[in-house]
Design brief:
By secondary structure, the chain is mainly beta. The protein has helices at 7-14, 49-54, 168-172; strands spanning 25-26, 42-43, 62-73, 78-86, 91-97, 103-115, 124-135, 139-142, 145-154, 158-165, 177-186, 191-199, 212-225, 228-241, 246-256, 273-281, 284-291, 296-305, 311-320, 327-336.
């Protein structure tokens, strides 16, 4: 169990954040001897995830990721999976101290999406609106995956399992971006899968405009196979070409877990590889993914983080070509040049 002395380190990786985009400040120069003043060189200020928590400025984190949720359509008496892209305004964070003097943290998600399936006149409405509060005593290190932390919360109608990183620098090499995911498992058989990266996004004016860069990335996520859910982790390489404004690469998610409380590995199991094909716009990336060599397809959203796009983070999901409701993948990734 995480002791109170370790609790500040925990905050670096498990707790979430509503985002507020900042802006760089420009420097000035004076005219000397009647000459023409040079164009000011803009400066861009970034803060590491650790320093944001230490300074209690967590509300300023930027967020990018995905959620997969169930919705019931009364017209044909069926459930549907809905993909929701998460942005800065969909997650919020607050902190305080309870009556016993324990620091508590609250995560809120508020996301709504409506879509009418082909052939139906009634829309599926996906509404994720709930909060979870917990203290450091609720947080545990996973025995079989010590880089990961776990929080389990029980509600009257659901169980929430949340996973984050113990040390982003040691695990993925990142300072300016971290990742979190959770599974809200409702008693009625429906669920919400939420995966996202958070940190300090790269300013558009601070983005490279030429050459390319390789990012060593780490991933984690949820794999639903024949209706049974598993957690996983993986690694890979993404290549950003800042001249053609493209992002390509792949991640292999080859560590599948058996026990949600220890993350012991299922020998020989793999959640499959993911191939990325995206377009860069400013500091944002959107694109498609191919899952397990044609087994399924989906999409991803990502952003560059930190100075000069040194780091990257994002979320993705894909559904199998056959019976995608019971066979799909959803996760998040972070990495560094």
């Amino acid at each position: 169990m995480i002791m109170k002395s370790q609790f500040s380190a925990l905050l670096v990786s498990i707790f979430i954040i509503s985002a507020c985009g900042g802006g760089g400040s420009g420097g000035g120069s004076s005219i000397m001897g009647g000459g023409v003043a040079p164009n000011p060189t803009p400066t861009y200020n970034y803060a590491t995830v650790d320093s944001r928590f230490d300074a209690n400025t967590v509300s300023q984190f930027d967020v990018v990721g995905v959620a997969v949720a169930d919705a019931y359509n009364q017209e044909n008496n069926s459930y549907y999976k809905g993909l929701l892209e998460l942005g800065d305004s969909d997650l919020s964070f607050s902190a305080g101290t309870d009556a016993n003097g324990n620091a508590y943290f609250t995560i809120d998600i508020n996301k709504f999406y409506s879509n009418t399936p082909d052939g139906l006149s009634t829309a599926n409405e996906y509404y994720l609106n709930y909060e979870a509060s917990f203290t450091g005593n609720d947080v545990f290190t996973l025995s079989e995956a010590p880089n990961f932390l776990s929080v389990t919360k029980y509600f009257s109608n659901a169980t929430l399992r949340m996973y984050g990183l113990n040390d982003t620098k040691a695990f993925a090499g990142t300072d300016y971006v971290d990742m979190v995911m959770w599974w809200m498992d409702y008693d009625n058989g429906t669920d919400d899968l939420v995966s996202f990266a958070f940190g300090d996004k790269t300013f558009s004016g601070d983005m490279p405009t030429s050459s390319s860069a390789n990012y060593a990335v780490k991933s984690m996520g949820f794999w639903v196979a024949d209706g049974t859910g598993y957690a996983y982790k993986g690694s890979g390489t993404l290549t950003a070409n800042f001249q053609s404004m493209t992002l390509t690469g792949n991640i292999l998610n080859d560590y599948v877990t058996a026990d949600p409380f220890s993350w012991s590995q299922i020998a020989g199991a793999s959640a499959g590889g993911i191939n990325f094909d995206g377009t860069i716009s400013g500091s944002e990336v959107t694109g498609t993914i191919d899952w397990a060599n044609g087994n399924g397809e989906g999409s991803f959203d990502a952003s560059f983080f930190g100075p000069k796009a040194d780091e990257i983070g994002g979320g993705y999901t894909a559904f199998a070509n056959e019976n995608g409701y019971d066979n799909h993948i959803s996760g998040t990734f972070i990495g560094v040049k």
